[in-house]
């Protein structure tokens, strides 16, 4: 068995810092909250509260999808991919349960989605994308998805959108919770959350260990007709440890630290009908972030440093083991000035140093990247919010284009308990070539250009508190968008396999969602519904690109939707979720496709209070209609399955 002690990923200095972070057991409380509007800062912040201004404050006119602790509660031991697939219409291209899963937003690819943790991108520098199946929900307390170009806020890769993995502010005191889960197809998981917070120190700890045989039955077509088989070579083992620390040095100064270690050992699920080569992949990541924040009367200064290390080892029966080891040193500095209650400016800079030892590069690689940015928020009146942002990156051998963003939100009308906002946003974005694209095969490709994108969106946001005897809180959003990506990189044979800037892609679509909440005595109901129409087509290319023009891109569903309800009465809880994914072409010529499918999931549970202890039992069912489907061509997906969860909490 291939092993790699996680602290070796960080080096002795960072290991010492990580050990300091883990000196105290802790947990993260699950604070339920109401759905958030596009901009959570509905009231103008006074000058003494500059701290805590999140990037969303500088994203007027943008669309967000937020899964808070209440929405994530049923996915205690699951991955971010599982939660997004079950609760949103966002399309994740997955190769099987627990296998590689990448997120596609507005018709783009996984390389066009930036995934951030503690302000830094965790996309693999080799692939330029994040594997959502390797990110456990237990390590994050909130998932925020920004739809559309967001390079000014998040940097390279945020062309289709960005995923921000966040944490909630812990409550004072101590809390501990432990979860034991068992389910179908050899699934088992153990997790732990702990928290300690007083006036000066807050420490949070999360731990997860899970495994699954994934030996589910599926139906395959053979020469004699449909046959029933059982999936083989798809087992997985995963573990994750997260530690976060906040130390209040003075009323104005704070020191923060975070460490996140993950390890995964996965058998690579073979395609249906193919010869099993016993492929296997082992992924290990070690991430450490240290930060310092100082607050003034009208300003705030933050500096952060991080070291992210990723090791990937792949092998099968037919090839020699392949190794990939990368380290990214990163530093950020930001200064926020709020010179008026309705105006704030954030200036910042960042630097990255990449170190890569990848078999496919045939040599040791180092590379530096830099960027500077400015974010402006100005509210001329209580009915109008404006943001103007810009980022300039400096890449090896070339300079990326300036990435500006202009956003606005205007209150069209307001009644005593209703309001309607008009929002609009225009942005330019970019994606720097990945290390694989620049150095694979031992050839440095100086001619490869950064991808660029221009996006526009506009829509309406509605909020209301309806009824008096039976009050219902309602939110609804409608957004139309257009996105053009130029210099799209594809790997093609010309004459040998290599990446080329060969195509221009236009994506247009419509996104709609609504959320409602009802409180009636001890009964609570939350209902959500969302729909996405996504038309993504290649509009031009070059001679080396043989793909036809005008067809819907591969694995981009034209229609997708999700609905869900959460019920709570006394100590009982019930959750129902349904998702629909339309047909997807599997070839560039659009001559073959996977049919659409609809899935139904549910969970039911009860909580018992025993003094300072709580005991929760939860039964979850997935794909209750036992639908036979494929998310990716040739990769079987499980039918009906169940999960039993037992959670013990103390506070």
Automatic annotation (TrEMBL):
<dbReference type="Pfam" id="PF07715">
    <property type="entry name" value="Plug"/>
</dbReference>
<keyword id="KW-1134">Transmembrane beta strand</keyword>
<dbReference type="GO" id="GO:0015344">
    <property type="term" value="F:siderophore uptake transmembrane transporter activity"/>
</dbReference>
<feature type="signal peptide">
    <location>
        <begin position="1"/>
        <end position="17"/>
    </location>
</feature>
<dbReference type="GO" id="GO:0009279">
    <property type="term" value="C:cell outer membrane"/>
</dbReference>
<dbReference type="InterPro" id="IPR037066">
    <property type="entry name" value="Plug_dom_sf"/>
</dbReference>
<comment type="similarity">
    <text>Belongs to the TonB-dependent receptor family.</text>
</comment>
<feature type="domain" description="TonB-dependent receptor-like beta-barrel">
    <location>
        <begin position="237"/>
        <end position="615"/>
    </location>
</feature>
<keyword id="KW-0798">TonB box</keyword>
<keyword id="KW-0812">Transmembrane</keyword>
<dbReference type="InterPro" id="IPR039426">
    <property type="entry name" value="TonB-dep_rcpt-like"/>
</dbReference>
<dbReference type="InterPro" id="IPR036942">
    <property type="entry name" value="Beta-barrel_TonB_sf"/>
</dbReference>
<keyword id="KW-0675">Receptor</keyword>
<keyword id="KW-0813">Transport</keyword>
<feature type="domain" description="TonB-dependent receptor plug">
    <location>
        <begin position="63"/>
        <end position="162"/>
    </location>
</feature>
<dbReference type="InterPro" id="IPR000531">
    <property type="entry name" value="Beta-barrel_TonB"/>
</dbReference>
<keyword id="KW-0472">Membrane</keyword>
<dbReference type="GO" id="GO:0044718">
    <property type="term" value="P:siderophore transmembrane transport"/>
</dbReference>
<keyword id="KW-0998">Cell outer membrane</keyword>
<dbReference type="InterPro" id="IPR012910">
    <property type="entry name" value="Plug_dom"/>
</dbReference>
<dbReference type="Pfam" id="PF00593">
    <property type="entry name" value="TonB_dep_Rec_b-barrel"/>
</dbReference>
<protein>
    <submittedName>
        <fullName>TonB-dependent receptor</fullName>
    </submittedName>
</protein>
<keyword id="KW-0732">Signal</keyword>
């Amino acid at each position: 068995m291939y092993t790699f002690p996680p602290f070796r990923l960080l080096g002795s200095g960072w290991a010492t810092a990580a050990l300091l972070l883990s000196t105290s057991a802790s947990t993260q409380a699950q604070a339920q909250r109401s759905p958030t509007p596009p901009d959570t800062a509905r009231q103008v912040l006074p000058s003494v509260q500059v701290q805590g201004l999140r990037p969303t404050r500088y994203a007027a006119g943008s669309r967000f999808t937020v899964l808070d602790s209440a929405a994530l509660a049923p996915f205690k031991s699951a991955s971010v991919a599982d939660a997004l697939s079950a609760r949103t219409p966002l399309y994740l291209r997955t190769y099987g349960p627990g296998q590689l899963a990448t997120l596609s937003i507005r018709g783009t690819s996984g390389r066009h989605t930036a995934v951030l943790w503690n302000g830094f991108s965790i996309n693999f520098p080799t692939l330029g994308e994040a594997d959502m199946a390797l990110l456990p929900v237990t390590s994050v307390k909130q998932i925020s998805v920004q739809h559309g170009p967001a390079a000014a806020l998040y940097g390279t890769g945020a062309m289709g959108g960005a995923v921000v993995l966040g944490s909630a502010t812990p409550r004072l005191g101590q809390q501990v919770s432990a979860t034991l889960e068992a389910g179908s197809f050899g699934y088992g998981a153990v997790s732990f959350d702990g928290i300690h917070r007083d006036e000066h120190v807050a420490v949070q700890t999360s731990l997860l260990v899970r495994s699954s045989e994934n030996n589910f039955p599926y139906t395959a077509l053979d020469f004699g007709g449909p046959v029933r088989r059982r999936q083989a070579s798809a087992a997985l083992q995963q573990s994750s440890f997260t530690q976060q620390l906040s130390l209040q040095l003075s009323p104005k100064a704070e020191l923060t630290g975070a460490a996140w270690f993950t390890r995964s050992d996965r058998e690579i699920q073979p395609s249906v009908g193919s010869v099993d080569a016993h492929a296997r992949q082992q992924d290990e990541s070690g991430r450490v972030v240290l930060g310092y924040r100082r607050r003034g009367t009208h300003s705030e200064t933050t500096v952060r440093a991080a070291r992210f290390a990723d090791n990937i080892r792949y092998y099968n029966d037919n090839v020699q083991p392949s190794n990939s080891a990368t380290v990214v040193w990163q530093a950020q500095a930001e200064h926020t000035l709020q010179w008026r209650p309705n105006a704030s400016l954030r200036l910042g800079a960042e630097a990255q140093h990449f170190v890569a030892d990848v078999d496919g590069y045939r040599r040791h690689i180092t590379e530096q990247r830099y960027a500077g940015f400015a974010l402006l928020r100005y509210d001329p009146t209580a009915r109008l919010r404006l943001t103007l942002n810009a980022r300039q990156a400096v890449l090896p051998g070339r300079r990326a284009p300036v990435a500006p963003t202009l956003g606005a939100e205007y209150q069209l009308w307001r009644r005593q308990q209703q309001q309607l906002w008009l929002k609009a946003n225009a942005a330019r974005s970019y994606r720097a070539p990945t290390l694989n694209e620049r150095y694979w095969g031992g050839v440095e490709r100086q001619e490869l250009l950064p991808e660029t994108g221009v996006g526009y969106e506009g829509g309406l946001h509605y909020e209301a508190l309806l009824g008096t005897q039976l009050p219902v809180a309602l939110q609804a959003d409608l957004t139309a968008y257009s996105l053009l990506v130029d210099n799209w990189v594809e790997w093609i044979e010309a004459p040998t396999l290599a990446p080329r800037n060969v195509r221009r892609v236009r994506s247009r679509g419509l996104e709609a969602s609504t959320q409602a909440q009802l409180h009636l005595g001890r009964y609570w109901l939350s209902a959500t519904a969302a729909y996405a129409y996504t038309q993504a087509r290649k509009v031009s290319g070059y001679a080396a690109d043989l793909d036809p023009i005008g067809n819907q891109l591969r694995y981009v569903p034209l229609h997708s939707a999700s609905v869900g309800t959460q019920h709570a009465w006394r100590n009982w809880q019930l959750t129902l979720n349904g998702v629909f994914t339309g047909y997807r072409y599997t070839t560039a010529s659009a001559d073959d496709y996977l049919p659409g499918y609809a899935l139904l999931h549910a969970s039911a549970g009860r909580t018992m209070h025993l003094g300072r202890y709580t005991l929760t039992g939860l039964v979850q069912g997935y794909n209750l209609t036992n639908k036979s489907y494929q998310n990716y061509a040739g990769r079987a997906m499980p039918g009906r399955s169940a999960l039993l969860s037992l959670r013990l909490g103390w506070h």
